[in-house]
Write a structure and sequence with these properties.
Helices cover 46% and strands 29% of the residues. The chain is of the alpha+beta class.
Length: 97
C-alpha cells in the first residue's frame, strides 16, 4: 500500500513544469501584442514632436488640414480657408505627405 503512495507522488509534475504554459502565454502575449504597441506609440510621439508650421496632418476626427500654430499642448490647424481649430497634440493621427 505504501508503494502506491510513492508512485502517486512521483507522477505529480513539479511547480515549474505546471507554470510553464502560463509563462509561455505571457511571453507570446508580450511579443505579439505589447511590444508592437509600444513601438507604434513611440513612433507616434516622435512624429508629433517633430511637427512644425506648414505640415499637412490628418486629425483623429477625420479632418485634414495644415498646422498654423504650435504650442506646448495644442496645435492650431486650418481645416478650410479661414477656418482654424485648436486641437490637442494627441488628436493628430498622422502626417500627410
Amino acid at each position: 500500500m505504501i508503494d502506491f503512495a510513492y508512485a502517486a507522488d512521483a507522477a505529480q509534475p513539479n511547480f515549474l513544469m505546471s507554470m510553464a504554459p502560463m509563462i509561455l502565454i505571457i511571453v507570446v502575449f508580450y511579443f505579439l501584442i505589447m511590444r508592437p504597441q509600444q513601438k507604434k506609440f513611440k513612433a507616434h510621439q516622435a512624429m508629433i514632436a517633430e511637427l512644425k508650421v506648414g505640415d499637412k496632418v490628418l486629425l483623429a476626427s477625420g479632418f485634414k488640414g495644415t498646422v498654423k500654430k504650435v504650442s506646448e499642448q495644442f496645435f492650431t490647424v486650418e481645416i478650410a480657408r479661414g477656418v482654424e481649430v485648436e486641437v490637442e497634440r494627441n488628436a493628430v493621427a498622422s502626417k500627410v505627405a
